[in-house]
Structures are given as structure tokens and as C-alpha cells.
Amino acid sequence: GGGPHLLLAALVAALCHDIDHPGYNNTLVVNSRSHLATRYGDEAVLERHHLYVTLRLLASPRCPLFAGLSLGAHRRARRVLQRAILATDMAKHADIVAALRGAEAPAPGHVLGALPHSDFCLVDAVVHAGDMAGQTLPFELAAAWGDRCIEEFTNQVKMEENLGLPVSMFMKGLDSIQQKGRMQADFARFVLRPLWAEMARLLPDALPPDVLPRLEAARELYEGWAALPVENEEGVTLDSDGQSTS
């Protein structure tokens, strides 16, 4: 509930939540003492930047999406927009999943309602889930999204090493299909599955029925990658436990 202007605000948040993203995460932004960390502080740095760029666009005469709203409606729309973009910070992921687990399915049209005992509302969770929807797509698309993320991770490791900063170890060594498979399988099992299971429970009519089966199928394929044999420096083929297969 809340009116079409609040739905529009949620859609704008989904569209703009990563606008002007530099291709690396908040950890590197803060550790490198980036100008963004100077401007926004050390928490949710990139999310605050995405919000700032979005609000600047909306203030432009060329993008008058909220121009006709009353003062009160405009403030409510900005509030929805702000909450939803800031909710895409991965530091909030566990809290969002916990809030979803304590929620009951909303009445039709009430995705803006507050989640019980939390600072989040359901639209925050919807935008957060949309930000992490790549692995719920058909596998060809899911793998392509995964490859783009891994490319960013690899570039971030190089930047951290070049700057003499602590290296994000979970991003390192992803040039092998086995390590890539392990990372993606763990991400699907421990991060994505709990979130999407709750989304499917709360919004069954809003999601494609094969969201969870696709995610499970992707996880199984990634586990297959992780189990592929690999050759060591001596040319000996090893299984996934590091034992010789010969």
C-alpha cells in the first residue's frame, strides 16, 4: 500500500541501486582512503554514493519523476528510495534474512509494510534480493553474471596487492574452475538460498515458480566444477581432496 508514487520510488531504487559503481567493494573504498570514504564515512560508502547520484538525477529538470508530488508525498517517496538503496549493503544481509524469517505473508499490495521487530520493510528486502538475483536465472545467464563478478573480484585483488592493502582472500585464486565452483556453490548455499527461500514463502505469486529450483541446479553445477580433478606442478592429477587419482 501507499500509492503509486511509492511503487515508483521502489522501482527507481531497483534501477539505480548500483549507479556509478566503481567495480570494487566498500572494504577497498575504506582501506584505500578513497575520496568516497572521505565524503560518506566508513559505513555503506558505495550505497550512500549510489543514493546521492540517484537523488541528483531526480533533482534534474531532465528527470522530473517526482516533480508533481506534494511535499509530504515527495518526502515519503524519498524515504522509500533511500531505505531500499541502503538495504543493498551486504553488511545488512543477515539482518534482512532474519527479519524475513519473522514475517508473515503480506496482504496484496502491502509490500511497503514494516517487517516485525526490524528496521526493514518488505520492499527493502525485495530490492536487496533483486540485487542478488543473478544466480536464480537460467544457468547460461547465471554463469555469465558470475563471471562478471569474478572479474571484478580478480581486479580488486590486484588493486589491493598493488596498494599494499590487506587482500580479500575469498576473491583470490578464482582463475581456476575448481576454486570458482567452490566459491559460487558456497555463496548459493549459505547466502542466496536462505534469502530466496523466504522471498518465495512471502511472495509466492510475485516470483517465477522455478526461482529456487534454478538456484539449486546452479549450486549443483558449481559443486561439480569444484569436484573436477586438477593437475599439480608436477603434472600429477589430483581429486578435489588433493589426492592423486593415479
TrEMBL record:
Query: What high-level taxonomic lineage is stated for the organism?
Result: Eukaryota, Sar, Stramenopiles, Ochrophyta, Raphidophyceae
Q: Which domain of life is it from?
A: Eukaryota
Which stretch is the leader sequence? 1-16
Q: Extract the SUPFAM superfamilies matched here.
A: HD-domain/PDEase-like
- Name of the featured protein: PDEase domain-containing protein
Q: Which GO terms describe its biological process?
A: signal transduction
Which residues are Zn(2+) 1-binding? H17, D18, D131
- Recorded GO MF terms: 3',5'-cyclic-nucleotide phosphodiesterase activity; metal ion binding
Q: Does the keyword Chaperone apply?
A: no
- The record lists the organism as Heterosigma akashiwo (Chromophytic alga)
